[in-house]
């Protein structure tokens, strides 16, 4: 778990894995996106994406076992997003088959809908296995043309995204 | 999230949801649907107008209530799409949908749309029109 608590200058919350924590996660996402100048669509989409992914970690990653989940806000001049780290068994959510909406419903599975929403509501969706064995998932959205950087004080939160193995 | 149930007629229940529907409370929504069915309701209006958030677990709740109204037990989400497909064809066949949705805010309707659920449930602008529709179904 050491990596989960590495000292970084990113706005971060750490929760115990439980669905009762989801409302707090969404509040954190809303506050961070608002502070970064994100518009309503950006806020709504990132709230949904992070909620779905954290919910999946609780339900499938830890599957009822105790654990913690760290959610950090990432901001660059071009994008805003979130990084979700856990200590659950390695699992790449991008491996969840995308329900093909142009095919008969009988070929889809409701179980992958959270990942489908996270994937389609964001501009970037990545996963890597942490050196400690846990997972790191990031979702990000491009700033919309009418929304520039909020303060020009963007963090270097993008640094670890380009180094995905 | 607050859940209210009203019974405008013996065979109709209106389940109103207010707040955020997520992985922590979707089972309460299913329970409300089950209680409505056990109380004699044959059609359920789910009023989404008070929702400020709905996660994919909310889709599971809607799906589960639809199954309950057909006299079935909810299935695992892992095999739920086939059930939804069956549900849609059955509803189209008998013209009497067990579940109709009312007043989804734009953000909620977007989730329904992106998940392919919009076409499976009749959606009405508000509770009154939804109740009127099921009353004449």
Structural account:
By secondary structure, chain A is of the alpha+beta class. Chain A has a single domain (9-142), classed as 2-Layer Sandwich (Heat Shock Protein 90). In chain A, 27% of the residues lie in helices and 21% in strands. Chain A contains 3 helices and 5 strands; from the N terminus they run βααββαββ. The radius of gyration of chain A is 15 Å and the shape is globular. The model of chain A is unreliable at 1-6, 103-108 and 147-165 (pLDDT under 50). Chain B has one domain: 2-Layer Sandwich (Transcription Regulator spoIIAA). Chain B contains 5 helices and 5 strands, in the order ββαβααβαβα. Chain B has helices at 26-38, 56-69, 80-94, 106-114, 127-135; strands spanning 2-9, 12-21, 43-54, 99-102, 123-124. Mean pLDDT of chain B is 86; it is low at 89-95. Chain B is α/β, with parallel strands linked by helices. In chain B, α1 (26-38) packs parallel to α2 and α2 crosses α3 (80-94). In chain B, β2 (12-21), α1 (26-38) and β3 form a beta-alpha-beta unit. In chain B, strands 1-2-3-4-5 form a 5-stranded mixed β-sheet, with helices on both faces. Chains A and B meet through α1, α2 and α3 of A and α2, α3 and α4 of B.
């Amino acid at each position: 778990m050491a990596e989960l608590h590495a000292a970084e200058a990113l706005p971060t919350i750490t929760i115990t894995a439980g669905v009762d924590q989801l409302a707090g996660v969404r509040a954190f996402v809303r506050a961070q996106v608002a502070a970064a100048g994100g518009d309503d669509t950006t806020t709504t989409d990132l709230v949904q994406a992070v909620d779905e992914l954290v919910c999946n970690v609780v339900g499938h990653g830890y599957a009822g076992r105790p654990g913690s989940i760290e959610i950090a806000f990432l901001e660059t001049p071009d994008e805003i997003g979130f990084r979700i780290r856990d200590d659950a068994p390695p699992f790449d959510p991008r491996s969840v088959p995308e329900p093909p909406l142009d095919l008969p419903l009988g070929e889809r599975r409701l179980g992958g809908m959270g990942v489908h929403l996270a994937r389609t509501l964001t501009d970037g969706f990545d996963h890597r296995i942490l050196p400690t064995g846990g997972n790191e998932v990031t979702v990000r959205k491009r700033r919309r043309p009418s929304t520039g950087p909020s303060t020009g004080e963007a963090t270097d939160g993008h640094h670890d995204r380009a180094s995905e193995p | 999230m607050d859940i209210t149930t009203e019974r405008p007629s013996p065979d109709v229940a209106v389940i109103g949801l207010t707040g955020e529907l997520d992985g922590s409370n979707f089972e309460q929504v299913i329970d409300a649907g089950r209680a409505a069915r056990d109380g004699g309701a044959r059609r359920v209006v789910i009023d989404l107008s008070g929702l400020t958030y709905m996660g994919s677990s909310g889709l599971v709740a809607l799906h589960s209530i639809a199954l309950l109204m057909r006299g079935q037990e909810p299935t695992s989400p892992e095999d739920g799409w086939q059930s939804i497909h069956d549900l849609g064809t059955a509803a189209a066949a008998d013209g009497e949908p067990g579940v109709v949705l009312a007043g989804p805010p734009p953000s909620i309707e977007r989730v329904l749309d992106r998940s392919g659920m919009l076409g499976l449930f009749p959606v009405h602008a508000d509770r009154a029109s939804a109740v009127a529709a099921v009353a004449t179904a």
